């Protein structure tokens, strides 16, 4: 995931169902990842 963000991927992009990466992370039992995606500015390494 970090490589994607470092390369400029936006965690804010939603799929056809309106879900973004944070939502999928949360639904699949990864609350810490979901929180990180929600505060990670698009395209900015942490």
Largest sheet entry: none
Q: What Rg is obtained from the alpha carbons, in whole angstroms?
A: 10 Å
Quick one: how many beta strands?
0
| Residue fraction in strands | under 5%
Topology pattern, helix = H, strand = E: HHH
What is the first-to-last residue Cα distance? Answer: 11 Å
Computed structural class: mainly alpha
Draw up the topology in text.
Elements: H1 2-6, H2 21-27, H3 31-39
Entry summary:
With 46 residues, the chain is an all-alpha fold. 46% of the residues lie in helices and 0% in strands.
Walk me through the structure.
- The protein has 46 residues and is mostly helical.
- It has one domain (2-39).
- The protein has 3 helices and no strands.
- The chain has helices at residues 2-6, 21-27, 31-39.
- It is globular.
- The relative contact order is 0.27.
- The mean pLDDT is 82.
Which short descriptors sum up this protein?
46 residues, 46% helix
């Amino acid at each position: 995931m970090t490589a994607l963000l470092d390369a400029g991927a936006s965690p804010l992009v939603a799929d056809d169902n309106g879900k973004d990466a944070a939502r999928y992370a949360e639904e699949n039992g990864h609350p810490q990842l979901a929180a990180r995606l929600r505060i990670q500015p698009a395209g900015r390494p942490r």
